[in-house]
Amino acid sequence: MQYCAKEKLASVTNVDNVKNQVLDKLGLSTPAEQKKDTGYMDGIEGLLNAKDGQKLDLDSLGNTELGKKVKTKACDLVLKQGVNFLS
Length: 87
Description:
With 87 residues, this protein is mostly helical. Helices cover 61% and strands 7% of the residues. The protein has one domain (1-86). The chain has helices spanning 2-7, 15-26, 31-36, 38-44, 65-86, and strands spanning 47-49, 55-57. β1 and β2 form a beta hairpin. α2 packs across α5 (65-86). It comes from Kluyvera cryocrescens (Kluyvera citrophila). This is Protein of uncharacterized function (DUF2501). It holds the Pfam family DUF2501.
């Protein structure tokens, strides 16, 4: 979510709010805690973990219209998962 917020890729405007709530719930509210979590650090770089253990690098999609649409869709899905995690 941090990557999506930084790149302004999610179609919802409250990404930072959801991100902060998820970080609090995961016990990652401080930068020191965040740096210890490899999943969080991958997320900052735009690396998403797939079900099969593979990673998708959002930066590799480029800045074409199609690349931006795919990144926005991915960010929307990550945000939706974050909201579901909170409820």
